[in-house]
């Protein structure tokens, strides 16, 4: 089942654009200038500068960077860092070819995921996309996008499978840590054949050194004392000075829409929650045994 052993390390991500935007936002705030005021001085719309600061602007001209650096009175060292990041920003990432089948917010998420060093996922409802089989993903999408074309559904499935290159490549694979509630494994998506294949895939993935999967049993109750919705922690690599190139981000996906949590208190709370859930789950070995036994049940019930 695991067949992606490419030596290629696709490091394309939205991180350079986010870093550029963060430095420019910090420089602007350092002057006490509002977003609206700075945009007006640049003869831009407020939304244009806002998108640049959020890392959502695909390209920016050298002259515009020079104008912003001058406007904010940025020192030479920081100006050099800003120009270097601006030079990296125009690269078109592979997932942009799937823009027609994903939301703008999820587009941003895929770019962040591509630049992460480690990903931690808690999922109480369905198997996360990063570890789904094609059959499982297809069964979900045929329900959720019931009026969409088969072609678009297959493109969404293909996008999900391509994202998995991050955890399956040979060089510097992303460290993946997952806590799945028992209900994820017992809720049938598609049919029992699909579920058996999905559980076998989880077993295959968990045999890799960079992937750990634990199961939170029903018997564990509510380890945090309350209901916890799904969330994903994205941790980014460090630079030459040992500082993270981007602060840790929490991504929360729901029926009502997607959200990013970046405030220190929110991130800390999610880290602590994940640790509590991880400790309450079965250990790695027991989790693998449980997944294997349940896979056999699905296979025997066909």
- Given as residue ranges, the uncertain stretches (5+ residues, pLDDT < 50) are none
- For the record, the count of structural domains works out to 2
How many helix segments?
A: 13
Q: In terms of structural class, how would the helical and strand content be classed? A: alpha/beta
Query: So what's the overall shape?
Result: elongated
Give the strand order, joined by hyphens, for the main sheet: 3-2-1-4-5-6
Give the helices and strands as they follow along the chain.
Answer: HHHHHHEHHHEHHEEEEHH
CATH T-level topology of the largest domain: Endonuclease, Chain A
Number of strands: 6
The first-to-last residue Cα distance is 20 Å
Overall mean pLDDT: 89
Domain HTH cro/C1-type: 24-79
Protein name: Transcriptional regulator
GO molecular function, one term: DNA binding
Pfam families: DUF5753, HTH_31
Task: Give a quick summary of the entry.
By secondary structure, the chain is of the alpha/beta class.
């Amino acid at each position: 089942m695991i067949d992606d052993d490419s030596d290629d390390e696709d490091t394309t991500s939205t991180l350079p654009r986010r870093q550029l935007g963060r430095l420019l936002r910090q420089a602007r705030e350092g002057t006490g200038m509002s977003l609206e005021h700075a945009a007006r001085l640049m003869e831009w719309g407020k939304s244009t500068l806002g998108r640049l600061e959020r890392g959502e602007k695909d390209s920016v001209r050298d002259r515009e960077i020079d104008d912003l650096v001058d406007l904010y009175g940025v020192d030479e060292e920081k100006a050099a860092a800003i120009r270097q990041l601006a030079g990296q920003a125009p690269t078109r990432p592979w997932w942009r070819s799937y823009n027609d089948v994903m939301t703008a917010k999820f587009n941003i998420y895929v770019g962040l995921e591509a630049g992460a060093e480690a990903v931690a996922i808690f999922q109480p409802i369905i198997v996360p996309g990063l570890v789904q089989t094609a059959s499982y993903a297809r069964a979900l999408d045929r329900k959720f996008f019931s009026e969409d074309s088969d072609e678009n559904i297959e493109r969404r499935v293909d996008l999900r499978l391509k994202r998995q290159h991050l955890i399956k490549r040979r060089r510097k694979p992303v460290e993946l840590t997952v806590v799945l509630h028992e209900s994820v494994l017992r809720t049938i998506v598609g049919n029992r054949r699909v579920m058996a294949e999905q559980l076998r895939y989880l077993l295959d993935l968990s045999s890799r050194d960079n992937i750990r999967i634990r199961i939170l049993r029903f018997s564990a109750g509510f380890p945090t004392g309350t209901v916890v919705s799904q969330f994903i922690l994205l941790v980014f690599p460090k630079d030459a000075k040992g500082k993270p190139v981007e602060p840790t981000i929490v991504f929360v996906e729901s029926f009502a829409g997607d959200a990013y949590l970046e405030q220190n208190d929110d991130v800390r709370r999610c880290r602590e929650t994940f640790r509590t859930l991880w400790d309450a789950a079965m250990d790695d070995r027991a989790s693998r045994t449980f997944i294997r036994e349940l896979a056999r049940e699905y296979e025997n019930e066909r």
